[in-house]
Amino acid sequence: MKFKKPLTVKEMANFLGCPFHGDANLKITGINEIHKVESGDIVFVDHPKYYNKALKSAADIILIDQQVDVPKGKAIIVSAHPFDDFNKITKHYSPFKSWENQHGDNFEIGEDSILHPNVVIGHNVKIGNRCVLHAGVVIGDGTEIGDDVVIGANSVIGHDAFYYKKKADGYDRMHSCGRVVLKDKVEIGALSTIDRGVTGDTVIGVGTKIDNQVHIGHDTVIGDHCLLAANVGVAGCVVLEDHVILWGQVGIASDVVIGSGAVIQAQSGVGRSLVGGKTYFGSPASDARTALKELAALRRLPSIIENI
To answer: What's the pTM value of the predicted model, to 2 decimals?
Structure first.
């Protein structure tokens, strides 16, 4: 998320009531998570395991829970509770705003686009030309939809990210202020859900087709001309490169990259990144030919044991 106008490190530290170290006049232009940061962003980190990653990231300002050496050209803001202060920033600069009407504020729709009955649209939404949104579709705040997009009945585009921090009294939600971007010629089936980014964008690429009852997690980026069959579940922060095919009931864990042209066969589970141009099967998913040979060998085990 980009701020409407830049803030200095000193101004942000004063807003949070926290000490800072580094250039007081360093400009903060946006706020992002570690996997989305750009120069000018502020990012938070609250575990030593990720200190180095955050400090070496593209972010110029790090909201951190310990005093550490400040990298050259950067600044740190020391907070006892970085997660809470990150939420404080996003809630202040992108506050929740209720929906009072069927269409929210700052709504734009292109020529020849059709909204069927009971379509509900949030604030700051843009819909391109020749789109069709079927009955019961819900479009969340900040969603951007290209041209020639079709969204099936009762699908939800732009729900809040499934992102929580465990605390002594339960789970605390990270406030979502990111977007969903559906590029041209995307088609989404009925009863599918796509979560918006926490601070960045969830993106569905040109010409990608998504079946019924598919879920896409926050900040996931899906490339051009991909196919996702029914009941696929993709966790947050996943990257599917162009021309990836996920057949029915495939599950993808978070922070995974699937290379261009990969095919994942039905009911496979993917917990690590996979190179493109190959077909995979199983849980954990592996080369399909090897996995099928292993299954065939397992079926022979009872007869082998009987003959020992």
So the answer is: 0.92
Verify whether residue 218 is a known catalytic residue. yes
Residues of the chain with pLDDT under 70: none
CA distance 36 to 179: 13
Question: Residue 250 carries which side chain, given as an amino acid letter?
Answer: V
How far apart, in whole angstroms, are the C-alpha atoms of residue 17 and residue 11?
10
pLDDT of residue 293: 85
Among residues 175, 215, 218, 243, the one annotated as catalytic is 218
The three-point CA angle 162-141-253 to 5° equals: 25
* Domains recognised in the chain with CATH numbers: 2-93 (3.40.1390.10), 108-289 (2.160.10.10)
179-182 and 144-145 strand pairing:
parallel
* pLDDT score recorded for residue 237: 96
